[in-house]
Amino acid sequence: MPTPRLIILGSSSGKASAHRAGSSYLLDLGSHGVLIDCGDGATRNFLQAGYAPEWVDHILISHTHADHAAGLPYFMQQRYLSGTKNPLTIHCPGEAAGPLKAIFNFGYLFKDRLPFPIEYKPLIERWPLDLDGAQVTAYPTTHLAGLRAHAERLGLPNRGECFAMRVQVGDRVILYSADLGSLNDLDAIPTPIDWLLVETTHVPLERLWPWAESRRIRRIVLTHLADDFDFDVVAHARPTTAAEILIAEDGTALDVND
Predict the structure, then answer these.
(1) Is this model's pTM higher than 0.90 or not?
(2) Is 163 exposed, middle or buried (0-12, 13-18, 19+ CB in 10 A)?
(3) CA distance 146 to 181
(4) What CATH number does the domain containing 133 carry?
(5) Alpha carbons 223 and 96: distance in angstroms, whole number
(6) By C-alpha distance, which of 100, 57, 42 is closest to 250?
(7) What's the DSSP call for residue 197?
(8) Is-contact 120 112, C-beta < 8 A?
């Protein structure tokens, strides 16, 4: 059985980078792939890594901010042009399915003209998804909670949904933070956690190190990086955590079993 890998397709923050694509990660399970978020530039990096769009049969979208989802229509177009008949399931916040369908229709990717069947499934808090080689469980974060009242005042259906994801592959566990309102958003997620793929924009890193140490996390991958990110924070963290700390770079492949 091929070794499962996590490919970093995009590691930029919400502020566009000349060197990084928007947030996107590919879980390579050998027989198929799972795309986790799909920011701008993800499709290009996906192709550069040597993958074919039809090989991905599940897409997980944590929330609908552009840096996490703007690349999805282009990825869908490539899948359409491939002519594949392989089914695709998009797992996303319940509030996102309708707008995504509208965006695809706006781009003339009409459902009845796609050569493959497509299904939308809402992410449900703490409800495990079996993705044929990986089990994914979504946990809500408060990243968008402060905008719910504003959406209500405007009469919009937005519910402020955003999800972190616990991904189990065999006996290894990856925790993808997505975007957070507070580090406390991750407190309910059970250990063990082998890989913590964590955003750096909304999290005070001086709090992250002891949090990760208390949970005996083995490896921390810092992502969602602005071009002015202070890389010295890694050196400052060394005395406070035993975890290996990695800086996400687009195109990096991580051996999940490592």
Answers:
(1) yes
(2) buried
(3) 9
(4) 3.60.15.10
(5) 24
(6) 42
(7) E
(8) no
Say which residues have a Cβ less than 8 Å from residue 121's Cβ, sequence separation at least 6.
Answer: 89, 90, 91, 92, 129
CA distance 48 to 101: 27
Q: Which domain holds residue 15?
A: 5-255
**Spans of the chain below 70 pLDDT:** 1, 238
Q: What is the rounded CA–CA span in Å between residue 214 and residue 201?
A: 22
Q: Which tokens go with 116?
A: 């493959």
Give the helix ranges, DSSP H, for the chain: 42-48, 66-69, 72-82, 97-106, 148-153, 205-214, 232-237
- Do residues 222 and 8 lie in contact, with contact meaning Cβ atoms separated by under 8 Å? no
For residues 22 and 73, what is the distance between their CA atoms, to the nearest angstrom?
14
CA gap 42, 20 in Å, rounded: 9
User: Closest Cα partner for 222 from 242, 201, 206, 192?
Assistant: 201
Instruction: Report the domain count for the chain.
Output: 1
What residues have CB less than 8 Å from 242, skipping those under 6 apart? 213
Instruction: Please enumerate in sequence order all residues whose Cβ is within 8 A of that of 184, keeping only pairs 6 or more positions apart, or say none.
Output: none
pLDDT at residue 1, as a whole number: 58
